[in-house]
Amino acid sequence: FIAIILAAIILLTQSLKFLELIIESGASSLAFWTLALLAMPRFFEVILPVALMIGVIFIYHRMNSDSELVVMRAAGKSPLQLARPALIIAFMVTLLLLFISTWLAPASLSNMKQMRDTIKNQYSTLIFREGIFNNVGKHLTVYIRHRNEERELEGLIIHDTRPENEVPNTILAKRGVILSSEKGQQVLVYDGSKQDINVKTGALNRLDFDKYSIELPESEATSVKYINANERTFWQLLHPDFSIEKDVKNIPEFLIEAHRRIIGPFLALTYTGIALCCLLLGPVSRRGQSGRITLAVVLSIVIQSMYLSVFNIATESMMALAILYFIVFMPLLVSLFILSPWGENTRYYILYLIHKRNS
Question: pTM (2 decimals)?
Answer without folding.
Answer: 0.75
